[in-house]
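Go through this pair.

…
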Amino acid sequence: LGTWVRVTNLRNGNTVIVRINDRMHKTMAKRGRVIDLSRSAAKELDFINRGLTRVKVEIVPKGTTE
């Protein structure tokens, strides 16, 4: 918890930097989910209307802006 990550939408290349503030529920992890994002982060990645999308998650240092 508290780790900063860059999440990249693999469909369009959009990225967002977010802080992990909660654990993924076991049921969702079993379904193949990697990360649950806020509505605003989903808008930044441009998949708000899709609901789900494939992403790449990379750990970044705190304070990273891009």
Q: What stands out?
A: The two ends are 21 Å apart (CA to CA). The chain has a mean pLDDT of 92. The CA atoms of residues 47 and 53 lie 7 Å apart. The chain is about 15% helix and 25% strand.
